[in-house]
Input
Amino acid sequence: MKTIQENDIFVHESSYIDDNTEIGEGTKIWHFCHIQSGSKIGKNCVLGQNVNISPGSIVGDGVKIQNNVSVYKGVIVEDDVFLGPSMVFTNVNNPRAFIERKDEFKTTTIKVGATIGANATVVCGATIGRYAFVGAGAVVTKDVRDYEMVYGVPAKHKRWICKCGEKLVYSSSDKGIRMICHKCQKRYDAVLENGYVCTVSPLIIE
Output
């Protein structure tokens, strides 16, 4: 198989692209990847070495998938997501080699701008929120909220982070709880529940 470089798509000669796949312009697919029939990959993505995209998987635009990642059926990866090296998705909660459970696959959604660190595991059925950050080696067993950073085994809340990836800190305001990023100065509204911040959203209007 020869290297494919047409319509601004690059596929290394060692990779396999099945029939009935959709790959957006500007996408680069490197060594030893397999893009299986029925999968969709958006524009301007980068797939590192040994990436597998299973049938029925959806990958948005601007996604970076590092080495040794498999995106299984039922996984939806939205735009501008980063999947770190050797991170793992699962697709069924109680697998057995001798029991067929393909009809029990659960949907896992990674929302816009989220990051999943190297060697993290995301158990099927979870939703990773917009611009959330899952630290390296974490095991995610439940949903992660927008702009939330989690890590550990199992993954737990550690802090709130900005769209740019920096830590958010409290900022005094007479208009309610606010948080701010000292790196880019972006400000956020925060909602309290039982004395703790439960949701964070970008501040649009003062």
Summary: The two ends are 57 Å apart (CA to CA).
